[in-house]
Structure to design on (278 residues):
């Protein structure tokens, strides 16, 4: 049974029973299969998709080179800052809930998710340096302008700063922006290396906070405010939840996020596989 699960994590208990019957002639009930797997410490989890190319030889080499650059910057006394963006809409909610056995767990939802609201942030080891939110699309020219504003607001000496960004299309012109600030260094993450970027953990914490707030105030979202449209009311509601969630990000959390990604460094330098969602 363990072999079946290790070969195919998506296999069902019924399929395991069918395979056992075909391979060994033994018939085992589904509850027995469940108890056996539970005893072997197998539990149901959310499925995380891992791109096929994530841990090929070329990407593992790029990941090792990226980690060496970050470690060299840190070792030379530079401040390593991470930038990234995320978005949210009215469909943001917890994916799991509770209900009585035999009944579906259903919640009321807006009929439309509405426009996306983006958060763009720059973080250091001691907290969020600069962030903005904006409605609608976020293009490469917007990203370049945002980085200029972030750097102008940065309290650190820019000739001792290393900015880390990923390879998203909106980041394609950031080298030109970095060249406008003498001494500033820009480093790009390796492909499929989100677990090495601590700001990804910031976005997870922000969205978890937003989900808590939105789950307890659904009626406030569905209400309307005199003088504005329903869409505008709901966008303001979403932005208020976003602002409140960003205020909860503190220096201790950022330090923990930095420390968490650094535990992968030794494995990356050794060309080990990197798993998603860890």
């Amino acid at each position: 049974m363990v072999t079946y699960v290790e070969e195919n994590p998506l296999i069902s208990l019924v399929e395991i029973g069918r395979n056992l019957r075909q391979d060994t002639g033994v018939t085992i009930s589904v509850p027995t299969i469940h108890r056996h797997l539970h005893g072997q410490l197998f539990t149901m989890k959310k499925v995380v998709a891992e791109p096929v190319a994530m841990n090929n030889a070329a990407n593992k080499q790029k990941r090792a080179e990226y980690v060496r650059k970050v470690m060299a910057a840190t070792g030379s006394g530079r401040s390593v800052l991470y930038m990234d963006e995320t978005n949210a809409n009215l469909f943001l909610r917890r994916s799991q809930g509770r209900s009585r056995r035999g009944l579906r767990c259903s919640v009321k939802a807006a009929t439309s998710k509405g426009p996306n609201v983006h958060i763009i942030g720059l973080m250091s080891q001691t907290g969020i340096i600069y962030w903005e939110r904006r409605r609608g699309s976020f293009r490469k020219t917007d990203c370049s302008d945002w980085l200029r504003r972030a750097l102008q607001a940065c309290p650190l000496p820019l000739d001792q700063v290393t900015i880390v960004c990923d390879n998203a299309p909106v980041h394609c012109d950031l080298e030109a922006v970095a060249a406008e600030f003498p001494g500033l260094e820009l480093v790009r993450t390796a492909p499929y290396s989100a677990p090495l970027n601590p700001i990804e953990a910031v976005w997870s914490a922000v969205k978890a906070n937003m989900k808590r707030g939105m789950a307890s105030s659904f009626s406030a979202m569905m209400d309307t405010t005199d003088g504005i449209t329903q869409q505008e009311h709901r966008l303001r509601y979403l932005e208020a939840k976003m602002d409140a969630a960003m205020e909860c990000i503190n220096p201790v959390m950022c330090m923990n996020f930095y420390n968490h990604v650094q535990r992968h460094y030794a494995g990356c330098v050794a060309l080990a596989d990197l798993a998603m969602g860890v």
